[in-house]
Amino acid sequence: MTRDIQVLLVLLAVSAATALLYQSGLSGPFLFDDHVHITQNRWVHIDSLDWADLAQAWNSSFSSFPADRPLAQLTFGINHAVSGLDTLAFKLTNLGFHLLTGVAVFWLTRLVARALNNGRPDPRIEVGVAALTCAFWLLHPMHVSTVLYTVQRMAQISTLGTLVALACYFTARLRVAEGRSAIAWFAAVPVTGLAAFLGKENAVLLPLFLLVSEVTVLRNLTTGTREPLVRGVWVLFIAAPLLLGVYYLLSHPGLYNYSNRPFTLEERVLTQARILWHYLHWLFVPDIRSFGLFHDDIALSTSLTQPVSTVIAISAHATLLAVALLSSRRWPTFAFAVLFFYAAHALESTILPLEMVFEHRNYLASVGPLFLLAYAIAGASGRLGVTRLAWLFGALLLAAYAAVTFVRVDNWSSFEKFVVSGVSNHPDSARYNFIAAKTLIGTLNRHDAERPLRADIARRHLERGLAADPTCTNCLFGLLVLDLHLDRVPSDDLMSRLTDVLRDGRVDATTLSVGQFSFLVKWQKSGASTLTDEQLRSIFDTALDNRGWNHTGRAGIHAAYREYLATVVGDLDGALEQADKAISTWPEQWAYHVHKVELLMQMQRYDEALAAIDAAMSVSDNNGQRARLEQLLQAIRQAADVN
């Protein structure tokens, strides 16, 4: 049996095992941001694969450049065109990307192993290291949330493109060392890097990965007569992009706006020092109780000594980095793995005001540490005379990864299991407790004998969430909604706590969903609400008094306020004022312009409606939006003629 066939069989076996492990989770539901980007995003809902529909899906993001991620949005659109909103099809596509990325992990790590051998092929070591790294990576339980949380296809595409770009670069450098042509492989690097960037902007870290590779495993490869070519590539692919990146970060201070986060820049940086060690612990010691989509039960670091583990974590990072840099010539494998991990976290785990913890940030970062582990087992163990013992350890570790992955996948197979496992593993998480309560509240039925019991359990979850995080405004809204479901008049104390937090507390996606305001409007429209008009207006007005909202959150509240005034109160002038405020807060949001057009039509102010149509047309970015505006234009003209 040839070596190539053996490699193929290994990849097929590992891929088959991975597919089998993920089978039960493929029927799981859409969750959270899946609804924003997919199920509630009608511009993704294309019905064909013609150019117009594909262009619409490409431009379907609600974010602006560079966070629009059009390639990922395009794949969501293709999924919809082929199979509608079938979760199985979407998650099966994610699994396909995971398996493809596993192949890219194999390809890259095999090339890294060859580069460590000064470019001399050693198929036995190369294949062993690459196959084990691939198996560790594909079966690792930390990656379950990236695969089964559909919207994380963005991270998958970015990771796949980045790994392929790195593999192309390594291939080119190895070919240069062999005296062979490398131009085509070098040219493929920016192309695949661009594809990665169009999936998610994390791919801007590619030049940093190339720098890490050059100062560690590639530093001893000869360049011969091609040295000018290689130096030119260094300038174009590494030095220039890194300098541009630094300039961009320094020239855009708005990137560091922490006004809508429940932590400061200092707290984030200090806490990340501890969280990076959490990530490494989860990579090497897979504990089902540690994993989850939300990790808001990890305490913030408010200073170097609060908690004291903060300064210990920072000191340990400094030591690890120093050892890696100083030993890059003597221990290039270790240096590559360490620096690769830190490079992968340079964007999402440093100074940007992102959420504190997400497992998918290790989808690419884990390649470095897992490669080091595989290299120690498949490569270095032979020199130490412990090959069999090392492979036994590797097999046991792989079995442990697979076992935990199997359990995690099952937890993602239904929303109920997702919630129960989440709140069980993270009982002090305000977010999991709120989700558990929200799920229970949604099941309350007037004629259900278990209604009082479920309501009591839901209330306990909400109170536990507030005990964990007193600023959990979602939890306060949950108590309010629970009272509405039980036909109770909310207490003055609850209303006071809610309005106080809305006015003065931190407001961000982790503590308050803007959808809460729209939900209350629906209750008022149903006629079954126990809230008075004065109470609801107080909720809106105090929330808008809070200066901590980002533009999308504030605009969403204005939009919900507009709906309430227009459809419940009948105050069209007040509704128009809120519509204008929503637009002025987020002028690029096409839907808010349409809301204003429809409101002006209802008020029979047709000339103003025509002007609003023009404003909406100026921010439309796909044929579906323009077609909708044409329909409204015709309706305005017909109504104007009649009147």
Walk me through this protein's architecture.
There is one protein chain. The model has no long low-confidence stretch (mean pLDDT 91). This protein has 29 helices and no strands. With 643 residues, the protein is mainly alpha-helical. 44% of the residues are buried. The protein has helices at 3-22, 33-39, 51-58, 70-83, 87-116, 123-139, 144-148, 153-177, 183-199, 206-215, 227-251, 265-284, 309-326, 332-344, 362-365, 367-384, 387-411, 415-425, 430-441, 451-468, 473-485, 492-504, 515-526, 533-545, 551-569, 572-585, 590-602, 606-619, 623-642. Helix 18 (415-425) runs antiparallel to helix 19 (430-441). The longest helix has 30 residues, at 87-116. It has a domain at 3-30 and 85-251 and 265-411. The protein is globular and about 85 Å long.
Mean pLDDT across every amino acid position: 91
What overall geometry do the principal axes of the alpha carbons give?
Answer: globular
Q: What structural class do helix, strand and pairing data support? A: mainly alpha
Main β-sheet: number of strands, strand sense, barrel status?
A: none
Number of helices: 29
Q: Considering DSSP H and I runs of 4 or more, what fraction of the residues is helical?
A: 55-70%
Gyration radius, rounded: 27 Å
The low-confidence parts are none
Number of strands: 0
Order of helices and strands: HHHHHHHHHHHHHHHHHHHHHHHHHHHHH
Q: Estimate what percentage of residues fall within beta strands.
A: under 5%
Distance between the termini: 84 Å
